[in-house]
Fold:
Amino acid sequence: MSVGVRYDPTAVEAKWLRRWAEEGVGEVDLDRAERPFYNLLMFPYPSAEGLHVGNVFAFTGVDVFGRFMALNGYDVFEPIGFDAFGIHSENFALKMNVHPKRLIASNVAHFREQLHRMEGMFAWSHEVDSTQPEYYKFTQWIFIQMFKHGLAEKRMAPVNWCPSCLTVLANEQVIGGACERCGSQVTTRQLEQWFLKITRYADRLLDNLDHLDWSEVVKTAQRNWIGRSHGLEMAFPVVGREGLSVAFFTTRPDTVFGASFMVLAPEHPLVPEITAPERRPAVEAYVREAAARREAERLDPTRPKTGVDTGARALNLATGEAIPIWVADYVLAGYGTGAIMAVPAHDERDFAFARAHGLPVPLVVRPPEGLPDPLPAAYAGEGTMVDSGFLTGMDSAAAREAAIAWAEREGYGRRRVTYRLRDWLISRQRYWGPPIPMVHCPACGWQPVPESELPVLLPDVEDFRPAGSGQSPLAAVESFVHTTCPACGGPARRETDVSDNFLDSAWYFLRYPSTDFPDRAMDPERTRKWLPVDRYMGGKEHSVLHLMYTRFVCMALHDMGLLPFEEPFKVFRAHGMMIHNGAKMSKSRGNVINPDSLFDRYGADTTRTYLMFMGSYQEGGDFSDSGIQGVYRFLHRVWDLVQGAAEAGWREAPPPEAERLRHRTIARVTRDIQALHYNTAIAALMEYVNALGARRDRLALCEAETLCVLLWPFAPAIADELWERLGHADGLWRARWPQADPEQLRDEEVELPIQVNGRLRDRMRVSADLGEAEAVALAAARPRVREALGGREPTRVVYVPGRMLNLVAQPGGDGGRG
RNA sequence: GCGGGCGUGGCGGAACGGCAGACGCGUGGGACUUAGGAUCCCAUGAGCAGCGCUCGUGAGAGUUCGAGUCUCUCCGCCCGCACCA
Structure:
């Protein structure tokens, strides 16, 4: 393809995509690199619709940074791969009625082409595809390590079930009671499932956050999700039932004297045991209703608080009173012990429940300003304890400690920390994932598949439809199911569930540097050299899914001695969301932008530059169809400017002000890229081009060169083409980022604003380091300043050299009120 | 409800506590053109006939010589989490 005199993005980009591929731009010698910089973008999920423009936005932001670091002398490793297993891909295959294996292969091919076209500086030779046996054999290997270290366990538990995807889901994949993938309302089922014990790491996952250089939004989301709370676990005996007691957890042990009833979750195992015979029909009916109720409805805090009395009573060990035990679905089976002591006066939910069912509301905490009687709402704040036996008169905070000490001393309970975080439910009753590499033997129990036999290949089955029976389609493949026990050699059955897609993506970046080692997941040498990841940028929608699972997997592998670090990402930055015409892009709104059409119409250089220009990378921005034209014009101007100047001939050196501007531009673009303020970096380049345009026939070569280098991270093809036309045989990938000379950044003369009493009245051109006395004298002599002063003498002078001068004068007697 | 973020021209968005509105879009005017939805130049927050003044960063108060920026109260929008005891 030939490249002419007019700017033709298609020709320029085709030429340079080829050249970069030939020259191996983006490929790094991982063993010899001297200044490794691991620049990671999120594992692309190759959907059938192709690359989303939101992906182009996200990935370009990563790539701009990578190119910037490359020119700053780093060996930048920016690998790429495909997260192609999982429900999303499989659901699409079901819809299209095409086998996922075939469908995904064509999706990946399409994605690869688009990623190429967006000019990412990717290390293609280290590509990873999570659906390939060479990759998932190690996903299975990681599962086995988890099992061997007691971090994987199959157990019966109430789990989230998606009636549309016909599989169980992890807590993190249920958003407001709906399936994260398909949006269906999730129900609860009692099933035996594989769990990874992430809760064992809750404290470390939480505490490490304090020292991580991550976007604050993500850290906050993780803290909330882990939800650590401190309190007391205690049990109240069931009245008249020797040896039977109801354990509960509370963060407010100070209010124990105010506990006027107890509530059990409908699923609580003691419910059938303690229910009084005459209450049995009502309780059983309520439990049945609660089980049938959809999760979203159950979790709606605005719904009236329903519940029934079991007829049983518990002894409040503080007051010595027998209090009723109710069953209500506002108490969650999965949190704490699934039972609570209800303190209606000081807990909003208990208050609402007590009101609805006519239960007493004894008050035990009084704030200094007192409380109205009757109480209009629960008072959950601090105060002085009243009517609380040995706690009476204490401050509530101190009473909390005293109550715990009392419970521990009397043997009623103990201090306890509780988490909102649940263990990671990893089984999926689906086809499109790595089979969980476990075998069940009637004699030996669960046994891992020997590592030498990995991978456990996903069998080719024609009917990959989920059965809905609570079993994966693999359960129907006799030849897969029947095997022998690795321990005793007897007949055994394979696990037929596959693992959660988030396990695939929890370690992909560990694999990238080691893709050339088929026999080990992570080569120790490579891992030590390249990991942890220097910088990771991606969407905040993965705050508690991917990013939390990944941290857990790394911590676990670290503890097993398999990784030399426990936190995978030194720096994480969340980017914002792309908006189009004021709304989130969605098919139903019809405002989705297809990146191919942008590439075709404007080229990748313009698309990249515009996406980075339209708003702040970390906040997101609004895509405007006319706005992109501005950037297109800008690149045209750059092209014409450099071409025109080349034809006119180069001057020796830029005049002094032009040289100062050049250095100021270098400084601004450098600083802005480092801070991810790509939009203002591009604005600085535009200003520079505007300024150079004013002297287009008298440019110096170094001005055009600086422009090309600074532009390269955003618009690499046009920058490389112009660079070549300036006479460089080597491409810009071998160039160095220019350094701003601090001497050139200092202004000699400035336009100094003059304020009188804080209001702008005049400005004057002065030397930047003008002394205060001279500045005041010069200013005071100016007619407009004299007028504003109205004959008064300044009583105070605020002078910031080079920035502004403020003369403060008291309002004189002449101007005052009579 | 809790947590986080944000409110700036017609629009997207800039502004170490120091000239509000950089840069871009749009709009108006002009130039060059057979022509322009191309390119270039000029203008563009509002008000006032007065080219300077007044008002202007969601509303109100406060701190300061000086506040879009810091503090408090309120209103509105967005994003998380949401009956977590």
Observations:
- DSSP finds 27 helices and 36 strands in chain A.
- Residues 812-818 of chain A have pLDDT under 50 and may be disordered.
- Residues 627-648 of chain A form the longest helix (22 residues).
